Amino acid sequence: MKKAQIDEILMPGDEAENAKREQTLKEKFWLKFRENASRIPFMEDVVAAYYCALDPQTPNKVRGILLAALAYFILPLDAIPDFLVGFGLTDDITVLATAFASIKGHITDAHRNAAKKALEDNIPAE
Asked: pLDDT by residue (tens digit) across 27-56?
């Protein structure tokens, strides 16, 4: 993926767009997680980002970036279809890694602890 494409995907949306992304994320994240947990080497970071994106204490710009990246991850329409074995998640991983690099430091110990608990329990901790 080109940097311009990634930048466009990660553009924080306005309040209405972020609310829509947040609702979609809440509805579809755990299904996508279960489908891909073994295929993404940094899935704990993805789950921690989920909790960070839903945390009202997270700055709006950071929430917007994470909501955009996680929405790209969970939605079926993206640059490389996820069902292509070996290639399908490369664009998702690239977008997520870029988002994480741009919001470094905003994923807190509380977000990481919630992610660890969710992974240990195999049940989302809401």
From this structure: 999 988 888 777 778 889 999 999 999 999
Q: Please check the confidence at residue 124 and state whether its pLDDT lies above 60.
A: no
- Contact partners, residue 105, CB within 8 Å, separation at least 6: none
Grouping H, G, I as helix, E, B as strand and the rest as coil, residue 79 is: coil
* Residue 126 included in any domain: no
Transcribe 55-72 into DSSP letters.
-TTS-HHHHHHHHHHHHH
The tally of CA atoms less than 13 A away on the side-chain side of residue 99 is 34
Report pTM.
0.80
If one counts the domains in the chain, the total is 1
Q: What share of the chain is helix, strand, coil (3-state, %, to 5)?
A: 65, 0, 35
Is 44 part of a structural domain of the chain?
yes
Q: For residues 13 and 6, what is the distance between their CA atoms, to the nearest angstrom?
A: 14
List the domain range (segments joined by +) for residue 75.
3-121
Using the predicted structure, report yes or no on whether residue 85 has a pLDDT greater than 50: no
